[in-house]
Amino acid sequence: MRSEDAEPGTIRPGGRTARVRSAVLQAAGDALAEHGFAQLDLADIARRAEVGKTTVYRRWGTVTSLVADLLVDMAEQSLPRTETGSLLGDLKANARLVQRTLADPRQGALFKAVIAAATCEAKTAEALHTFYDIRVKEWAPCVQQAIERGEVPEGTDVQEVIRAVSAPLYYRLLTTGDRLDEAAADQAAEAAAAAARAGAYLRG
């Protein structure tokens, strides 16, 4: 059997399966950003991706499974952390990455749609939690390094500091409609850094 005819999931990374997955996830992200979760349709996504409907149904089965895979891919493709040598510098880099993502017309709409879907779809909620868990763990070492440098107290909850950076930015995205710019990102980072230095995130 030629590799082109193999079942999805059986070809080494970089083969046809990887190309199909990439095309389908791109199409799913576009459709999600344009129409929201409720309007997602596997047949439409297959058409957008220019792959057979059978392939999409066999590989993912449901819209929620496809969105879950999209979130896994987004977490894997996100940029690695930036280490500047200071807590504030690192947190600003994190905040600006979040800000650029949420301010992007496609990405911002996509996150709004996924967050909305997560309120009523358990599998989507689980995938969203996994996405943020991966991203928080990616950046948490920046806070651990700040502890080791003596910038913040021993016992600081490193993951909670990272969550505190992005929380105000998501709040703006979802509730206020205010412009998400670098000033907002820097303000969020400065607030989180000041709170961490003051011991606000000590465990227990």
TrEMBL record:
<keyword id="KW-0804">Transcription</keyword>
<dbReference type="GO" id="GO:0000976">
    <property type="term" value="F:transcription cis-regulatory region binding"/>
</dbReference>
<feature type="DNA-binding region" description="H-T-H motif">
    <location>
        <begin position="41"/>
        <end position="60"/>
    </location>
</feature>
<dbReference type="Pfam" id="PF00440">
    <property type="entry name" value="TetR_N"/>
</dbReference>
<protein>
    <submittedName>
        <fullName>Transcriptional regulator</fullName>
    </submittedName>
</protein>
<dbReference type="InterPro" id="IPR050109">
    <property type="entry name" value="HTH-type_TetR-like_transc_reg"/>
</dbReference>
<dbReference type="InterPro" id="IPR001647">
    <property type="entry name" value="HTH_TetR"/>
</dbReference>
<dbReference type="GO" id="GO:0003700">
    <property type="term" value="F:DNA-binding transcription factor activity"/>
</dbReference>
<dbReference type="Pfam" id="PF16859">
    <property type="entry name" value="TetR_C_11"/>
</dbReference>
<keyword id="KW-0805">Transcription regulation</keyword>
<feature type="domain" description="HTH tetR-type">
    <location>
        <begin position="18"/>
        <end position="78"/>
    </location>
</feature>
<dbReference type="InterPro" id="IPR036271">
    <property type="entry name" value="Tet_transcr_reg_TetR-rel_C_sf"/>
</dbReference>
<dbReference type="InterPro" id="IPR009057">
    <property type="entry name" value="Homeodomain-like_sf"/>
</dbReference>
<keyword id="KW-0238">DNA-binding</keyword>
<dbReference type="InterPro" id="IPR011075">
    <property type="entry name" value="TetR_C"/>
</dbReference>
